[in-house]
Design a protein that fits this description.
It contains 11 helices and 6 strands. The chain is of the alpha/beta class. The chain folds into 2 domains: 37 residues, no CATH class; 237 residues, 3-Layer(aba) Sandwich (Undecaprenyl pyrophosphate synthetase), CATH 3.40.1180.10. It has a 6-stranded parallel beta sheet with strand order 3-4-2-1-5-6, with helices on both faces.
Length: 292
Amino acid sequence: MNFMEAKGWTSVARPPLHRLGARVSLSFQQRLALRGTIPAGLDRKEAEVYQRLDPERLPQHIAIIMDGNGRWARRRHLPRVAGHRAGVASVRSTVETAARIGIPSLTLYAFSEENWKKRPKGEVDFLMGLLCRYLKAEVPTLNKNNIRLEYIGRQHELPASVQEKMGWARDATRQNTGMVLTLALNYSARTELVDAFRAMVDAAASNGGLQHLKIDEDGISQHLYTRHLPDPDLVIRTSGEMRLSNFLLWQLAYAEIFVTPTLWPEFRGVHLLEGIAEYQKRERRYGGLGAP
C-alpha cells in the first residue's frame, strides 16, 4: 500500500513527463482530486466547500424555504415576476448540486396555500405558467441526474392544466432511483395536519367505527403528505427571515435551521454546501444531553 492509498486519497492521472525536470501543471480539479474524491460536476467554488464536508454525515433530507424573489426584483426596479423568473436558475443549481453530492431527499417550498389566496391573480397566473414551463424544460435534466420528482400540498385545487403537467413530469421521472425532489405546491403545514386527522378519522370509520381510532405520533406521521420521506435534518431559509412560514411544522421538530441573508435568485449550489458545512458543526441531541 502506497502513501496515497493509506490516506484514502484518490489518485488522478498526471500529465506525461517528456523529460526529467519538466514542469507539471495540474488543473484545479486534479489538485483537489489528489486531496480527496470530488463528485463530478461541481464547479471550483463548490468543490472548495465540499472539501470541508464529511461525506459520511450529509443530511438525508434538506428542506428549503425559497424566499426573497420580490425583494431581489425591487432592488433592481423590476416587477416581482422578474424575481420569480430569476429564481428558476437557483432551483436548477441547487437541485443539481444536491443530487451530485448524494443528498437522498430535497424538498423545496415553491408555492404556499397563502400565496394562492393572498397574491394578486396576475402574479399567481404567472407562477402557474412558470411552473409548467419549468417542468417541461427540466425533466431531461432530472432524468440525466437520476432524480425522481414528487409533490406535496393540495394539488387537486390547482388548475387542471397545471395538474396535468405535474402528473406528466412525475411519470416521466418515476423510474429514477436517485434523489427524490419534492415540490411543495399549494402547501400549508396546518392544512396538512387537518388532512392527516381527517384521513385517520375516515380510516377508522371504514374499519368498524370511531372506537377504533388510535391517535399517536406514528399514526399521524403515516398520514402526512411526507409519509414516504424521512423528516428533514436541515432546513434552509433564504433572505434572512427568521420564521418557518407554515412549512413542515410537524416534520421540522428536530431539524437544524440555517438562515442565510442571500436572496433566493442569488442562491446557488455553493450556498447549499455552505449550509451543510454549518449543519455539520452542530451537535444533534434530540432533547438529550450533549457529549461530555
